[in-house]
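Hey L., structure's done. Input below.
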Amino acid sequence: MAIASESMVFTAMEDCHGQMQSHLTALEALVNGMESSPLDAEGQKHIGAIEAFFSRTARQHHALEERYFFPPLLAGDEPELIATVRGLQQDHGWIEENWLELSPQLSAVASGNNWFDLAELKHGVEVFAELCRLHLELEDTLVYPVTRARLESGAQATL
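Output:
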């Protein structure tokens, strides 16, 4: 039963990566569209949902990775993998720092306020999206496959 549970959690973590990618794409499109016209109520609502996702779900996702995914990889004896995981941990800090600057601006947009500087907002979104995408790519191509393989080999060992 524990293996099925772990597999479900792992699948949920992978699904969250897809949601992050979708939200990043939508955020970029919405902010870029603001150059030609202000957001309507639906656009503001969408920005608010994106802000809420990254403020809650994405932060929880990173906390779970730090607690459950990274420690076994750091305890191993693969120097390249350990270096990559340490870089991903550093990324989590950079992502959080960028988010702390970006989130209030997005909250303002979602509330219909216009105290933000659009060029600064656009730049902040570009930096945040690029950092997230590079981070997700490393997790999706290295950390998650290694973790899944270890989970599956552990399941095979218990049969």
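Confidence is low (pLDDT under 50) at residues 155-159. The radius of gyration is 18 Å.

-- N.
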